[in-house]
Specification:
alpha+beta, eight-stranded mixed β-sheet, Dihydrolipoamide Transferase, single chain, OB fold (Dihydrolipoamide Acetyltransferase, E2P), Chloramphenicol Acetyltransferase, 10 helices, four-stranded antiparallel β-sheet, about 400 residues
Length: about 400
């Protein structure tokens, strides 16, 4: 029986995918549920499993854009799994030996001699007149000698001749990367995006993590990181400034009474932005556990489209890569994104005296069409206040209760 494998729908509104990579070869025997291909949609990279066991015939090439429901391969389910053959192994071994002999022959053939790169007298005169170093000219004569014709065709370099490698490589962008590019350009062109900055003294957060991170990890099997503090601070600020938790839909503004926080994480296929649903209902432990779960799924390429849609606000942590300051781009159709950066000890003034403290620069990029400057600055100040006084503003004065210790 010949089974036609069609492209399944990876999510609502997605009409086509791209064959990113075939994981099997045409004519291979595949097992049921074996991953046979990676396909890119405009939102995620997914694995395509074999629906049945049998001999596979590929009907699409890597890089092809195929419509959802289109046949991409055939599986002959009546074919028996081929037994290992000693003769086949011998053929492979023989082919490898022959290929090695060819390589040795090519190497011997391409061995350099005293004539390699040496210009003939006529060629040398022409090169000297042109001011061209003979080392920069490839010789086509016997044993690589530079002929008069080589010298005539040689073109002087407009820059400093270095003799270094000047090759280039072209790689087709994946559908996911192309969609990301389109969305970024769209966000820049279709929103009135501005960015406001502030700095946060992370001393209080550092002290809390230093005192409680070990017992927190032991109790909950997850680390007490910075994301839970920032997520909690963002949720508080969104409650104080609801316009930041809104988005434009045509001539209307949609405001949300829940906080679905998108977190930017780096995956093998590029930037992924999974969503923490109803983050306002999560404890510190709940946020850290969800961040860990989503980050692992992104790293392993298991993030689904549903897990990356529907966020109302985004947090991006460029600090993990060493970024000091940046202007993050809004994740449409959202209206705001908070950029976190690296934490560096800097001199600051406290109570009239200069002290050294761990400082993080934070940035809020926002859509000025629905968020005014006063609200954007107030939002960022609210985050600063919460992070500099987390026990009172994020933990209601009870650290043990907030951390569920």
């Amino acid at each position: 029986m010949i089974l036609e494998m069609k492209v399944p729908s990876p999510g609502e509104s997605i009409t086509e995918v791209e064959i990113a990579e075939w994981l099997v070869n045409d004519g291979d025997y595949v097992e049921k549920d074996q991953a046979i291909a990676e396909v890119d949609s405009d939102k995620a990279t997914l694995e395509l499993p074999a629906e049945e066991s049998g001999i596979i015939t590929l009907k699409a090439e890597e890089g092809d854009a195929v419509a959802v429901g289109e046949v991409v391969c055939l599986i002959d389910t009546s074919a028996e799994k081929p037994a290992d053959s000693v003769e086949k192994d011998k053929k492979v071994e023989t082919a490898i030996v022959q290929e090695a002999k060819k390589e040795v022959a090519v190497e011997k053939k391409s061995e350099k001699t005293y004539a390699t790169g040496t210009p003939s007298p006529a060629a040398k005169k022409i090169l000297d007149e042109k001011g061209i170093d003979a080392k920069t000219v490839g010789g086509t004569g016997k044993d690589g000698r530079i002929t008069k014709d080589d010298a005539v065709k040689a073109v002087p370099s407009m820059g400093s001749p270095t003799g270094g490698n000047r090759s280039e490589k072209r790689t087709k962008l994946s559908m996911l990367r192309r969609k990301v590019a389109e969305r970024l350009v769209s966000a820049k062109n279709e929103t009135a995006m501005l960015t406001t900055f502030n700095e946060v003294d992370m001393s209080s957060v550092f002290e809390l993590r230093k005192e409680y991170k070990e017992v927190f990890k032991e109790r909950h099997d997850v680390g007490l990181g910075f994301m839970s503090f920032f997520t909690k601070a963002v949720i508080r600020a969104l409650d104080l400034f609801p316009s930041v938790n809104s988005m434009i839909d045509g001539k209307e503004m949609i405001s949300f009474d829940f906080c679905d926080i998108s977190i930017a994480v780096s995956g093998p296929k590029g930037l992924m932005v999974p969503v923490i649903r109803n983050a306002e209902n999560l404890s510190f432990r709940g946020v850290e556990a969800e961040v860990k779960r989503l980050a692992l799924r992104a790293r392993d390429g298991q993030i689904t489209v549903d897990e990356m849609t529907g966020g109302t606000f985004t947090i991006s942590n460029g600090g993990v890569f060493g970024s000091m300051l940046s202007t993050p781009i809004i994740n449409p159709p959202q209206s705001g994104i908070l950029g976190m950066h690296n934490i560096v000890e800097r001199p600051i003034v406290k109570n009239g005296a200069v002290e050294i403290a761990p400082i993080m620069y934070v940035a809020l990029s926002y859509d000025h069409r629905i968020i005014d400057g006063k609200e954007s600055v107030g939002f960022l100040v609210a985050i600063k206040e919460a992070l500099e006084n987390p026990v009172e503003l994020l933990m209601e004065g009870d650290v043990n209760k907030a951390l569920e210790l």
